Amino acid sequence: MYNVVGVRFKKAGKIYYFDPGDLPIQNNEHVIVETVRGVEYGRVVIGPKQVDENDVVLPLKKVLRIADQKDRLIVEENKAAAKEAYDVCCEKVNIHQLEMKLVDVEYTFDRNKVIFYFTADGRVDFRELVKDLAAIFRTRIELRQIGVRDEAKMLGGIGPCGRMLCCSTFLGDFEPVSIKMAKDQNLSLNPTKISGLCGRLMCCLKYENDEYESSKELLPDLGQWIETPLGNGKVVGLNILERVLQVEIPQHERVLEYTLDEILKEGAVSVQSTE
């Protein structure tokens, strides 16, 4: 077992584990840590706890110190410098007539590197751009191409639901989302209805998917004949989330609703699977 703290470097970024050592670190405190990118400033979102060896990436890097007011001032200065670097890079992109869209600029805490995030439809030859930027900023330059979902996460915005984007507020990782999830939830397959600002399928389709899948395994299929308290009937509608069936009963010439529990009391005997 390892004693660790979970640190985030961005509001909705991934959580990385670090060794707190003997430092009295509390949740929500800011700390200075060493990462593969260099020295970074982050916020503790998971207080000290014990985790299994399989849950950490070894060797576990240590927390260098708890951040102070001076460190916070450095972060603010880096943000201001990043805004200036953004304008400079946009100008250079136009001069070199590159088919790329600059999304964000970020300085590492120790100013050892400046990272430019951009989107593009294909590969971009930015060698001359890097030379110009290196001559201006006199530090290591990294141009990182990102996808449209990462762009939405960085820029933020308001989704079709009227709330701030999940990816920019609390989602640490993107999970695979498929059109099958929309079908299982009986949603409209109109791309404008199930797509987010990024143009990809909305992340929230994943949230209730496990519940729909487990409910679907218990419920009969559409068109299946089952036993009901009023006789044999054909399933003509399903409310998967509430586990409610709409059953057409020819004997009574009616369509009735039954819960799954009511049908199970009757044994849910299938008379025939289709018409």
Topology of this protein?
Layout: E1 2-8, E2 15-18, E3 30-35, E4 38-51, E5 63-66, H1 69-96, E6 101-107, E7 113-119, H2 127-137, E8 140-145, H3 148-155, H4 166-169, H5 179-184, H6 191-194, H7 209-218, E9 225-228, E10 231-239, E11 244-249, E12 254-259, H8 260-265
Parallel strand pairs: 7-8
Antiparallel strand pairs: 1-2, 1-4, 3-4, 3-5, 6-7, 9-10, 10-11, 11-12
Helix pairs in contact: 1-2
Protein name: Cell fate regulator YaaT (PSP1 superfamily)
Domain PSP1 C-terminal: 61-146
GO cellular component, one term: cytoplasm
Sheet/helix structural class: alpha+beta
Radius of gyration: 27 Å
Provide mean pLDDT, rounded: 89
* Count of DSSP-assigned helices: 8
Oligomerization status of the protein chains: single chain
Strand content: 25-35%
> Between the first and last Cα atoms, what is the distance in angstroms?
59 Å
Q: Could you name the CATH class of the largest domain?
A: Alpha Beta
The CATH superfamily of the largest domain turns out to be K homology (KH) domain
Give the spatial strand order of the biggest sheet: 2-1-4-3-5
Major sheet description: 5 strands, antiparallel
Kindly state the number of beta strands. 12
Helix content: 25-40%
> What string, H for helix and E for strand, traces the elements in order?
EEEEEHEEHEHHHHHEEEEH
